[in-house]
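note to self — DONT lose this again. spent like an hour looking for the file last time. sequence + predicted structure for the chain T wanted, 138 res
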Amino acid sequence: MTAEIETRIAESFARQGLMGSFGAEILSVSAGHVVLQAPIRSAAQQQHGFAHAGLTFALGDSAAGYAALTTMPPDREVVTSEMKINLLAPGTGAFLRAEGRVIRAGKRLVVVTAEVFRDDGEMVALMQGTMIPVSATA
């Protein structure tokens, strides 16, 4: 893991309007692994007061995508091709934490997973998906 990759991810993350709207932050970055966290604000809750699945999905997708980005050369970035989510428990408490991991990084596909937890440590969602490398200038 290099400082350049950490800087690249931090700069990219800062450009994500949705993550900014959610108040999300990067907790850690390492090779093939990124952890993000976001508060469960009232604007991101559904009608029962739980974290909306949109928050859960977006946080997990971003954590997995940035984990994939740690495996890319400087001239490549990634976009999500597909992502499956299993919602396992209500998103309650003060925040959600998403841990994205690379399962396998290939030239054309990067298989990723993300686990999303609430503040008491219970898993809220399990996600698996595929990222596709694209030109960094795209």
